[in-house]
Amino acid sequence: MAPIPETNPAVYAQYQTKWSELPSTEDAWVARAQEVAKVLAQDAAQRDQENRSPRAEVALLKYSGLLKLLGPKKYGGGEQPWSVGYKAIREVAKADGSIGMLLGYHLLWSTTANVVGTPEQADRTHQLIITNNYFVGGAVNPRDSDLKITADGDHIVFSGNKFFNTGGVVSDLTVLEGVLDGTQDHIFALVKTDQPGIQFAHNWHNIGLRLTESGGVKIDNVRAPWTDALGWDASTKQPREDTLKIAFATLLLPTIQLVFSNFYLGIALGSLEFASKYTTTATRAWPFGGDNKESATDEFYILERYGNFFAHLRAAEALADRAGDQISGLYARYSSDKAVLTPRERGEVAEWVASVKIVTTDVGLRVTSGVFEVTGSRATASKVGLDRFWRDIRVHTLHDPVAYKNREVGRYALLNEVPEPSWYT
Question: Which residues are in the Acyl-CoA dehydrogenase/oxidase N-terminal domain (predicted)?
């Protein structure tokens, strides 16, 4: 398919100089994310309807410095913990779920080498990404067949197809993952996106998260040096025999699952904020209830619903922050090769993350659909754009069935079992 039209980065050119310095504290980073959200909120509904490739929106993330939030200061990064990254994702998603999702995936993929790579590879990858202010996408979808990797001298060669990739079309680098031919060993590597061997299908035409460029991609003989095979020894062409590091590498999945939950939460919070403004300015009181009110904001059922939604979102936010602190704690304690991360410690944190996933899925779907009950029938007009919140959260909450998270947490609560690491746990 032909590429869809792109948004123009020139519309955000003023922010390239406005945000010339990075924030230095957690509060300042969250405030920067809120500034980005305020810009995106101005025309979020219109951009959703136009469904253009988000070239400009990624440029805005670059100008804001948010892409550098987790990176080391020595290369110009913010060197913040994941707990701050999660809050930034949430703030951006309040205004635009697609761009919140892109930020979340970038933060995960740009730090992949921290988890599955060697210290030298992580350092080199950070220098590449931060000094160039690169945006990173990923073609890693475990539901598809693995990419095939063949060895060719000092290089590995990736080939295959992925039904989903995220942000690839507008990325500078793409994370690839596959299985080395003749083995069961997986390899991650980052490669330049702009090359003939990466061929995007341009087929992302779904009901929600329309600006994430999450369609298919063909990987045709894409080469990477063995030195970029994350966690592998380039001289022996073997995975590092380091069981402690392998245990640490399993943190990749809880980390990204909590990324998901935070943009779910951001979308739900954004829908309530958006609906609140609509209710206070446009919703009319119901004149046939026998207890007539002059204003919709005096209606008992409207106040009751907003109170209930707000309370549940407040609880979900507290739970998400607690899990973010748990993830950050593990990274702080076990990021060196000498540290020992036990399966039990990893599993305990995975259950915090699973709990957040369950709660944010449930409350997110309930709030984003329920806000129509307190805004009224006129709020369903396309020009209002309230529907995009539900469409966005509905699409991604199907990523992996939440029923399995409920079962997983059930086994933990009932039998004190922690889950085995998997592509989704």
Answer: 36-125
